[in-house]
Amino acid sequence: MDLVVIGGGSVGMLYAARLLLSGQSVRLITRTREQAGQIRQDGITLRQLDGTERHAPIPSQPLEDGLPAADLYLLAVKQTDLDSILSALSDIPPAARVLALQNGMGHFEKITGILAPSQCLFASNTEGARRISPVFVAHTGTGLLRLGPWEEAKERDPIGSAFVELANRSGFQAVYENGMKPFAWRKLLANASINPLTALFDIPNGMLLESPHTMHLMRELFQEAAAVAQRYGEKIEEQDWQDIVKICRNTSRNISSMLQDIRRRNETEVKAINGYLVQKGREAGLPTPMHETVLRAVLLKSDMVKGKGE
Ligand code: KPL
Q1: I need a surface site. Which of 18, 40, 41, 71 has the fewest CB within 10 A?
Q2: Is 187 a catalytic residue?
Q3: Nearest in space to 254 (alpha carbons), one of 77, 125, 137, 129
Q4: Ligand 1 centre distance from Cα of residue 304 (Å)
Q5: What is the position in ligand 1's atom list of the atom closest to the CA of 187?
Q6: Which domain holds residue 263?
Q7: Is the pLDDT of residue 266 over 70?
Q8: Running DSSP on this structure, what letter comes out for residue 301?
Q9: Residues with Cβ < 8 Å from 283, sequence gap 6 or more?
């Protein structure tokens, strides 16, 4: 299978490096020419969970040089960077698939707006990764990769199925799901309950479990988000809360993507995560005061670290 990973952030680098190291040919497309040049020169260093480091010599090129032909494009850019990638995606071969790995919501509308629904696959990924430099990524926690079409389809997608096998051979835990929408909602609930708190308190995921105060805040965020999800037809149960606690435990050393963004002075995905819940809550007449508060607080913190809040 011809595979292209789009995005030189933590998730893109993790997938590209592990797939390449298991013998799969893979190319990495970065948003900046500078990073592509550095990767072409140095390859990617992957720090594995056991602390050992491996070198992955990955061919890389910037997005502005266009997308090479492939069977599958792993779209590993943030929601906030999606708009700048969309026009390049409209030129991919008609038989190719795009696997969207975004956190939050909003990407479904954008991607299906330019590609045929049969070309679009969606993923929910709870693997923890940290970008240490443009050529260095650390794998910081095990998780599960679920992927498939957004809505239930009559037939299993052959490229999606082949990628599930490939990902499992590369050491990921991957499963094919016929209908990703419920999992996207659950991932949204997890990100909305974990990420803003880690970003505001500047702590790794696992530390949320260490204080009754953070546990309480996380639980309140979960309950508000669950009420919104239920209003949109998702049946949220106690097990879904337990799953969020498990994600924190399994990625305990991980610095959440939102905290990584704050630390690197990048725009966060808080609008696509907590902002989405506030918006959907408003449309359904459901108040979401906790999500509104963390949304404002993360936006403020983001401005402050960028020096705009002074
Ligand atoms: O998806 C994540 C993120 O950081 O965005 C989790 C699973 C919470 C891992 O940190």
Answers
A1: 41
A2: yes
A3: 129
A4: 23
A5: 1
A6: 182-305
A7: yes
A8: H
A9: none
The response to whether residue 198 sits with its C-beta less than 6 Å from ligand 1 reads no
> Atom of ligand 1 at shortest distance to CA of 255?
10
Q: What are phi and psi of 168, to 5 degrees?
A: -65, -40
Strands (E), 7-148: 26-30, 44-47, 53-56, 60-62, 72-75, 97-100, 120-125, 128-133, 136-141, 145-148
Confidence of residue 309 (pLDDT cuts 50, 70, 90): low
Reported as a single tens digit per residue, the pLDDT across 194-250 is: 999 999 999 999 999 999 999 999 999 999 999 999 999 999 999 999 999 999 999
Distance, CA of 57 to CA of 43 (rounded, Å): 4
Which residue's CA is minimally distant from atom 4 of ligand 1? 256
Q: Which of 110, 154, 181, 187 is catalytic?
A: 187
For residue 245, report the distance from its CA to the centre of ligand 1, in Å. 12
- Which CATH number goes with the domain that contains 217? 1.10.1040.10
ipTM, 2 decimals?
Answer: 0.95
Q: Tens digit of pLDDT for each residue in 270-282? A: 999 999 999 999 9
User: Is there an atom of ligand 1 within 6 Å of 10 CB?
Assistant: no
Total structural domains within the chain: 2
Residue 225 belongs to a domain: yes
Q: What band does 310 get if pLDDT is binned at 50, 70 and 90? A: very low
Mean pLDDT of the chain: 96
Mutate which of 256, 268, 273, 298 for ligand 1? The one with the most ligand atoms within 8 Å of its CB, which is 256
The residue written with tokens 């459901």 in the block is: 286
User: Is residue 126 in contact with ligand 1, taking CB distance under 6 Å?
Assistant: yes
Ligand 1, atom 5: closest residue by C-alpha = 257
